[in-house]
Each structure stands twice: as C-alpha cells, then as structure tokens.
Amino acid sequence: MFMTQYTNPDVIGDSPAWLSFIWIAFGISLTLMIIGIYYLPVDWWIKGYLYMGTLFLTASTLTLSKSLRDRHEYERLVNRVKNARTEQVLSKYEG
Fold first, then answer.
1. Cut 0.70: pTM above it
2. Which of 44, 46, 54, 74 is the most buried (most CB within 10 A)?
3. Which candidate, 43, 42, 41, 23, places its Cα nearest to that of 31?
C-alpha cells in the first residue's frame, strides 16, 4: 500500500499499520458518536444540535491537524534552507 524508504530521515513516513489504526479509530469513534446521539432519549432538535456540533468539531479537528502539519513541514523546510546557507558560509571561510 504505502512504500516508505527508511534510509533518508527526510522521507520517513508513518507505517501503514499506524495509518490504518488512525483511520479505523477515527471511523469507529465518529460512528459510535452518531449512534449514541441517535439513541439519546431527547427531542429531535437536541439531537440535531448534537449532530451539528459533532460535524463542526470533526471538521475543525481535521483542519487543525492539517494546519499544524503544514506549519511543521514549513518550519522543517526553513530550517533546512538556513542550515544549507550556514554550511555554505562556513565552507567558504574554512577553505
């Protein structure tokens, strides 16, 4: 499914088992939340409010995790560029 090269530390990704676990846990938790709301002994408008809250909470969690990942990748890129520039300056003055 996902082939990963473990020789380059910049290319290392999550294992297929971990990715499967994450998606399965996400699917189970969302399904159980929806089923739990369905069987609550309350009026339909309360259930609708809880469904809406679940939907927005799930969407905002996914957006937050994507934004944090993007920020992390950006910072890694900036650090790699800074390190390359530092190495270039040091090699110029050492040689």
1. no
2. 54
3. 23
Range of the domain at 66: 16-94
Whole-number Å distance between alpha carbons of 65 and 73: 12
Vertex 30 angle, CA 56 and 32, to 5°: 130
Number of domains present in the structure of the chain: 1
Please tell me the distance from the alpha carbon of residue 21 to that of residue 65, in angstroms, as a whole number.
Answer: 17
Coil, strand or helix: which one is 9? Answer: coil
35 burial class (0-12, 13-18, 19+ CB within 10 angstroms)? exposed
- In angstroms, the CA 82 to CA 88 distance is 10
